TrEMBL record:
Pfam families: STAS. Residues 10-85 form the STAS domain. InterPro entries: Anti-sigma_ant, STAS_dom, STAS_dom_sf. Belongs to the anti-sigma-factor antagonist family. This is Anti-sigma factor antagonist. One of its GO terms (molecular function) is anti-sigma factor antagonist activity. It comes from the Bacteria. It comes from Nocardia gamkensis.
Amino acid sequence: MSSESAPRALEVEVRSAEGTVVVTVHGEIDMASAPRLQSALDEALRDTPAAVVVDMSNVGFLGSAGLSVLLAASEATGSGGLRVVPSDAARRPIEVTALDRLLTVCDSVEAALAVDETQAPS
């Protein structure tokens, strides 16, 4: 397997921005890497922030295990608490599974940070 076709290891960074926790994800989210994302989201939710933004704009693959992690985080944050910025590769499974009806899906981190709680899905 060439290095170009090898899956990218999952990299996760957690930071605070404007009172919101931003979880930036790079790589592929599959059954093997989803626990790393779950751990980062658990850490982000520990202090019960008003909202969590998951920046997935550099995610090349989002499998069912990753969708499950997003669903669990959405349930933990309550309505509008989880905002996702998906790449094209991540947006498709979110839309196909109708998870976009539970999550607040945004086109950029800036847009996600600017979301008014009243705009969140119910």
